[in-house]
Specification:
CATH superfamily of one domain: DNA gyrase/topoisomerase IV, subunit A, C-terminal
Distance between the termini: 132 Å
Radius of gyration: 43 Å
Shape: elongated
Number of strands: 41
Structural class: alpha+beta
Helix content: 25-40%
Strand content: 15-25%
Number of helices: 20
CATH class of one domain: Mainly Beta
CATH topology of one domain: Neuraminidase
Strand order of the largest sheet: 14-9-8-17
Length: 847
């Protein structure tokens, strides 16, 4: 036959399909995926069975790993030795296996990713819990098949009483599919198994009362339950894992201590990654990272710089490193030889069915053995009752076969019984042994009855299974290592910012920034101030207010629209920085501008937003009150906040509880006081009602609005264009009807300029004053004595030689530390103008 005759022509497409299907099924069934019943891949099963068969058990000494690997290769697994050794090592690693099945002695690697020692150095033996995987394997509980060379047999499955697939998990990449199953707590899983035995119709939700979540050997936290629920209900989900950390405070600096890391994270790589982030300046506030782990446990120490917030740094580490990571659950296992994605109920059901089959087969085996023994004992008892005749028959027989045949004919025995009598030792002829035979026979009959009842009574069979599960819990059960935190898996943006007081400024040209309140140091009244922002294109600070980093800011424009912004989203800058154009942060129309703002802690508190009001006042003296709840749904393009007449615009907005005293001031130095209750609540797009009647000079307008509670310590502070201001008692402002002209609040002169601001203050407040050239001054309210309502006031900031005006005024809480002496900072060559300046004496020009 030539070569041409040996060539078979086939369609390559069909051949590729057939061959690849054969290959893929071989990988899926025989290599990569675990069986749903014992949770083992073939190589794991062969290792455990080989160790048990060779007597490498927990009650004996360790054996060299090389010997175990050789036995597995030679008898059952004709593949590479490194693949078998790698699997053997994994079975012994307690940071990989929740319940290791193999007890290793020597270097088996570490959580740092260190490689294990070569197999000629390490030693292994089965753990007790590993032996439980093969309990009753010699009682016909599982099927055996020939090994690769048909010289020996190996089990197709192990008769495990441990729900290994759930408690130790599994991972593997097959062809076209992969499995990734997390470990769980043995006690929880077996309690869930028993609950399903009691209630076969139990739901996944009910099972989760027993099986709470995965339980990783490395401990740490599981954050959020939604991903766990997805995995339990569908077989696929995303579990958020987080390291266990604590912050230690020391006089010099804080430290972040990491004692447990997420499952599967390499500790050495984690430390190196954190160091690289610090070196690349991607994360700030860390001065050093050390690994202080020892035999007592893991300890990673992250030193925090003195001026950094440890909580914020920790949140950034969670976000940027594997201190927080996720485990993608994909519960694919083999069910009757076919890959299937299993939910929690199906996984437990597969194990319970396997246990039921094992118990039934074991019971049947024990029953058969008991019946065999009882049958033999019956013959022995007959022999013992007729001992003289039995001895005579045996002595007179020519050979054992003749004796057996004679006994069978004489006493109606079968061959098995007769052979047992012939093989009986002489000591069994004593009276004591005869009593023992009768006792053993009675015991056998009771055992047969018990075993028969297990087979005939399903409830009794279930109880046997449950009793064995409880026994496993008693032997090996333990508490959870991974703590469950019932919270959102995702970080909130505020987690990355310390909640600190900030000064928010908005310039005339629409630039916004936030600056730490601590940058505005306290000065004495009458000071010249310090540089607050760069003066660009005649820009100046038009609005200034305080808020904390986590606050929501509601911005209200001149045209009556409302926009939302979180304080931490506002760019941070120093006092002299320009900031960022607010047009780039809010979708404000080019011909519109911010005119009012409200800082609110949260818009998610339903009770709060349903019992608070926004009170608007406009340039032309109108007022409107609307529930805060109407403004609690942010939209990218903003919403209508108030309806305005032509030529009118929003001047101020207050947050109230509906029972405040409202005081509104106009540019000509008058103020009106009335109760908020006289203004009924209106819809969001309504116009409002008259609050104050303005002068008809064409220049008068509303400049500000405050809400007061008539507290004894509260006073009214007014400030004019030229830096004059004064404090007055609230009682000096009599209550009137809404819509009147009000009373004089400041004696307006050419020297003082028009009124620009009104504030409700106490001695615990400071004022931050910014003029139109960018100079800032922070003064304590307690420096100003209380004066009459209609007086001119005193100089707050000296603008006499600057040709400048007050741009904005903001009330803040006083600094707790000692007040600095007044200091003067100069810009644009103003040193000569103010070198010899002294604050003017207080003036009181009564009307």
């Amino acid at each position: 036959m030539d070569n041409q005759d040996r060539i078979i022509r086939v369609n390559i497409e069909e051949e590729m399909k057939s061959s690849y299907i054969d290959y893929s099924m071989s990988v899926i069934v025989s290599r990569a995926l675990p069986d749903a019943r014992d949770g083992l891949k073939p190589v794991h099963r062969r290792i455990l069975y080989s160790m048990m068969r060779d007597g490498n058990t927990s009650d004996k000494g360790y054996r060299k790993s090389a010997r175990t690997v050789g036995d597995v290769l030679g008898h059952f697994h004709p593949h590479g030795d490194l693949s078998v050794y790698g699997t053997l090592v994994r079975l012994a690693q307690d940071w990989i296996m929740r319940y290791p099945l193999v007890d290793g002695q020597g270097n088996f690697g570490s959580v740092d990713g260190d490689s294990p020692a070569a197999m000629r150095y390490t030693e292994v033996r089965l753990r007790k819990i590993g032996e439980e995987m093969m309990q009753d394997i010699n009682k016909n509980t599982v099927d055996f098949v020939p090994n690769y060379d048909n010289k020996e047999e190996e089990p197709t499955i192990l008769p495990t009483c441990i729900p290994n697939l759930l408690v130790n998990g599994s991972s593997g990449i097959a062809v076209g599919m992969a499995t990734n199953m997390p470990p769980h707590n043995l006690t929880e899983v077996l309690n869930g198994c028993m609950a399903m035995i009691d209630n076969p119709d139990i739901t996944v939700e009910e099972l989760m009362q027993y099986v709470k979540a995965p339980d990783f050997p490395t401990g740490g936290f599981i954050y959020g339950i939604s991903g766990v629920r997805d995995a339990f209900e569908t077989g696929r989900g995303r579990v958020i894992m987080r390291a266990r950390t604590e912050i230690e405070s020391e006089p010099q600096h804080d430290k972040i201590i990491v004692t447990e890391i997420p499952y599967g994270v390499n500790k050495a790589d984690l430390i190196k990654f954190i160091a690289n982030l610090v070196n690349d300046k991607k994360i700030e506030g860390i001065s050093n990272v050390n690994d202080e782990s020892d035999r007592e446990g893991m300890r990673i120490v992250i030193d925090i710089k003195r001026d950094a917030n440890a909580g914020v740094v920790l949140n950034k580490l969670f976000k940027m490193t594997s201190l927080q990571t996720s485990f993608s659950v994909n519960n694919i296992a083999l069910v009757k030889g076919r890959p299937k994605c299993l939910n929690l109920r199906e996984l437990i059901e597969c194990f319970n069915e396997h246990r039921h089959e094992v118990v039934i087969r074991r019971t049947q085996y024990d029953l058969d053995e008991a019946k065999k023994r009882a049958h033999i004992i019956e013959g022995l008892i007959i022999a013992s009752d007729n001992i003289d005749e039995v001895i005579h028959i045996i002595r007179s027989a020519k050979n054992p076969n003749d004796a057996i045949q004679e006994l069978m004919e004489r006493f109606e025995l079968d061959e098995i019984q007769a052979k047992a009598i012939v093989d009986m030792r002489l000591r069994q002829l004593t009276g004591l042994m005869q009593d023992q035979l009768h006792n053993e026979y009675n015991d056998m009959l009771a055992r047969i009855e018990e075993l028969q009842s297990i087979l005939n009574d399903p409830e009794k069979c279930k109880q046997v299974i449950k009793d064995e599960m409880q026994s496993i819990i008693d032997k090996y059960g333990d508490g959870r290592k991974t703590e469950i935190v019932l919270t959102s898996e995702e970080f909130n943006p505020e987690d990355f910012y310390a909640d600190e007081p900030m000064i928010i400024t908005v310039s005339h040209l629409g630039y916004i920034k936030r600056t730490a309140l601590t940058e505005y140091r306290l000065q004495g009244r009458g000071g010249v101030g310090s540089k607050g922002s760069d003066k660009r294109d005649e820009d100046f600070i038009e609005h200034i207010f305080t808020a904390t980093t986590h606050n929501y800011i509601l911005f209200f424009t001149q045209k009556g629209r409302c926009y939302w912004l979180r304080v931490f989203d506002i760019p941070e800058g120093g006092k002299t920085s320009k900031g960022r154009a607010i047009q780039n942060m809010l979708n404000i129309e080019p011909d519109d501008a911010i005119n009012a703002y409200i800082a609110i802690e949260s818009l998610d508190n339903e009770e709060f937003i349903s019992n608070r009001y926004l009170v608007f006042c406009t340039q032309n003296g109108l007022i409107k009150k609307t529930l805060l709840k109407d403004y609690s749904r942010p939209r990218q393009n903003g919403i209508i906040a108030i309806k305005l007449n032509d030529g009118d615009k929003v001047i101020d907005v207050l947050l109230t509880d509906g029972n405040k005293e409202i005081i509104i001031a106009n540019r000509n130095g008058r103020a009106i006081r009335f109760n908020e209750s006289t203004v009924r609540a209106m819809g969001r797009v309504s116009m409002g009602v008259r609050a104050m009647t303005l002068d008809d000079d064409g220049e008068d307008c509303v400049v500000g609005m405050i809400a007061v509670d008539e507290q004894p310590e509260e006073t009214i502070m007014v400030i004019s264009e030229q830096g004059y201001g004064k404090r007055s008692e609230i009682e000096d402002y009599r209550k009137t009807n809404r819509g009147g002209k009000g009373v004089k609040t400041l004696n307006i002169t050419e020297k003082t300029g028009k009124l620009v601001s009104i504030q409700a203050v106490t001695d615990d407040n400071d004022l931050v004053i910014i003029n139109k050239s960018g100079i800032t001054l922070r003064v304590s309210v307690s420096d100003f004595r209380i004066m009459g309502r209609a007086t001119q006031g005193v100089i707050l900031i000296n603008l006499e030689k600057r040709n400048d005006e007050i741009g904005s005024v903001c009330k803040v809480d006083s600094e707790p530390e000692e007040i600095e002496e007044p200091q003067i900072e100069y810009i644009d060559g103003d040193e000569d103008d103010f070198a010899n300046h002294k604050p003017e004496e207080e003036e009181e020009n009564h009307i």
